[in-house]
């Protein structure tokens, strides 16, 4: 019986070995690819091709996460936010709105006023994805986090101070302040998701004489909010992401003291054009915008609001060197919303496009570590040397 069972065992072993071999071959032949670099001819393109070694190697996505949703979710699950000791600097705008800069404590020495600065602009989750600042600090940069109005404990006095998608005016205030404080330092910005939208709009709309940013890098930025809306309102994405975004925004609204009770909001003694009982029923971010943002700020419809917030329509106005990292399978920033034609026509903006990566995912290896492909693109030399130093020479 032992003799008769041996061929069967060998057969199953052979099947497993063949399956493993075929899977491995498929992974390395069809999955592992170099990113697509989309940019018009110019100094930025030449420098990327000649000096950024990380872009010359393929991206090895985690084999069991070959899906935008798995990339997105497992990055959020596996990533541990670093303990960042920060010194908070409060800036009050002319309208009385409190903003803040969280300076990493190790970078508070004033002995080198020429030290280049990295300013991190977060997405909807605030500081949750600020691992790149640890790397920036280790490379010798003065590093800081832009605290968006109403986030990280900053108070809002009234509903009309709520942040809006793509609004870049607060970032302009922060950058102006940093420039006045460190006039000889280069200011470089890194943005994640919605933070990238803010950066793009700032770079596009700020007059050159008032733009103090030397270089920028953004990751998983939605370029067209209408396309993002349509993607996130599919049956699966609504239940996977949208309902939680809506819940976050509702809780965000609830946590401020400018409402006397849950069903009635007032400002300067006047009733506001929304009812909190209706707001609590929202299950998508567009329903929240429809219920709160549109009547509060006077937008005629969602199409108008999302068009004005989207950076894709104004990318050709950007003249500051900008590197954008996106994945084709990003559920928040689908390929249909990326203005590839504008990247093809501009020598100042580059799109680094990977097949896999999800939304701020880009996890690698069989068991991903906290350092992702996108982290390496934004944080490792010589890419940092270019994005955060050598752009002055372009």
Automatic annotation (TrEMBL):
<feature type="active site" description="Charge relay system">
    <location>
        <position position="359"/>
    </location>
</feature>
<keyword id="KW-0472">Membrane</keyword>
<comment type="similarity">
    <text>Belongs to the AB hydrolase superfamily. AB hydrolase 4 family.</text>
</comment>
<dbReference type="InterPro" id="IPR029058">
    <property type="entry name" value="AB_hydrolase_fold"/>
</dbReference>
<dbReference type="GO" id="GO:0051793">
    <property type="term" value="P:medium-chain fatty acid catabolic process"/>
</dbReference>
<dbReference type="Pfam" id="PF00561">
    <property type="entry name" value="Abhydrolase_1"/>
</dbReference>
<keyword id="KW-0812">Transmembrane</keyword>
<keyword id="KW-0378">Hydrolase</keyword>
<dbReference type="GO" id="GO:0051792">
    <property type="term" value="P:medium-chain fatty acid biosynthetic process"/>
</dbReference>
<keyword id="KW-0719">Serine esterase</keyword>
<dbReference type="InterPro" id="IPR000952">
    <property type="entry name" value="AB_hydrolase_4_CS"/>
</dbReference>
<dbReference type="InterPro" id="IPR000073">
    <property type="entry name" value="AB_hydrolase_1"/>
</dbReference>
<feature type="active site" description="Charge relay system">
    <location>
        <position position="330"/>
    </location>
</feature>
<keyword id="KW-1133">Transmembrane helix</keyword>
<dbReference type="InterPro" id="IPR012020">
    <property type="entry name" value="ABHD4"/>
</dbReference>
<dbReference type="GO" id="GO:0008126">
    <property type="term" value="F:acetylesterase activity"/>
</dbReference>
<protein>
    <recommendedName>
        <fullName>AB hydrolase-1 domain-containing protein</fullName>
    </recommendedName>
</protein>
<dbReference type="GO" id="GO:0047372">
    <property type="term" value="F:monoacylglycerol lipase activity"/>
</dbReference>
<dbReference type="InterPro" id="IPR050960">
    <property type="entry name" value="AB_hydrolase_4_sf"/>
</dbReference>
<feature type="active site" description="Charge relay system">
    <location>
        <position position="193"/>
    </location>
</feature>
<feature type="domain" description="AB hydrolase-1">
    <location>
        <begin position="116"/>
        <end position="365"/>
    </location>
</feature>
<feature type="transmembrane region" description="Helical">
    <location>
        <begin position="12"/>
        <end position="29"/>
    </location>
</feature>
């Amino acid at each position: 019986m032992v003799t008769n069972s041996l061929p069967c065992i060998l057969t199953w072993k052979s099947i497993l070995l063949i399956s493993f071999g075929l899977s491995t071959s498929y992974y390395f032949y069809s999955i592992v690819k170099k990113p697509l670099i989309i940019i018009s001819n110019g100094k930025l393109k030449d420098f990327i091709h000649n000096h950024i070694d990380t872009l010359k190697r393929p991206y090895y996505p985690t084999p069991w996460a070959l899906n935008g949703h798995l990339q997105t979710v497992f990055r959020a699950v596996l990533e541990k936010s670093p303990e960042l000791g920060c010194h908070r600097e409060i800036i009050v705008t002319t309208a009385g709105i409190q903003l803040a800069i969280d300076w990493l404590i190790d970078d508070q020495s004033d002995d080198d006023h020429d030290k280049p600065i990295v300013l991190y602009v977060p997405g909807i989750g605030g500081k949750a994805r600020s691992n790149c600042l640890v790397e920036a600090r280790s490379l010798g940069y003065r590093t800081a986090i832009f605290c968006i109005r109403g986030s990280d404990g900053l108070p809002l006095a009234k509903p009309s101070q709520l942040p809006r998608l793509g609004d870049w005016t607060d970032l302009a205030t922060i950058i102006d302040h940093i420039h006045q404080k460190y006039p000889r330092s280069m200011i470089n910005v890194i943005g994640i998701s919605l933070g990238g939208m803010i950066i793009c709009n700032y770079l596009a709309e700020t007059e050159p004489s008032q733009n103090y940013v030397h270089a920028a890098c953004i990751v998983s930025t939605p370029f067209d909010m209408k396309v993002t809306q349509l993607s996130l309102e599919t049956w699966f994405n609504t239940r996977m992401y949208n309902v939680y975004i809506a819940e976050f925004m509702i809780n965000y609204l609830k946590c401020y003291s400018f409402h006397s009770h849950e069903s009635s909001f007032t400002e300067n003694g006047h009733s506001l054009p929304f009812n909190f009982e209706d707001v609590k029923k929202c299950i998508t971010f567009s329903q929240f915008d429809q219920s709160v943002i549109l009547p509060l700020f006077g937008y005629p419809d969602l199409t108008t609001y999302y068009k004005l917030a989207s950076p894709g329509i104004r990318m050709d106005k950007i003249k500051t060197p900008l590197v954008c990292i996106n994945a084709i399978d990003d559920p928040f920033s689908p390929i249909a919303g990326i203005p590839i034609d504008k990247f093809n026509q501009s020598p100042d903006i580059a799109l680094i496009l990977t097949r896999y990566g999800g939304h701020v995912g880009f996890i690698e290896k069989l068991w991903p570590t906290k350092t992702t492909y996108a982290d390496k693109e934004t944080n490792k030399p010589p890419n940092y040397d270019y994005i955060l130093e050598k752009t002055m020479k372009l």
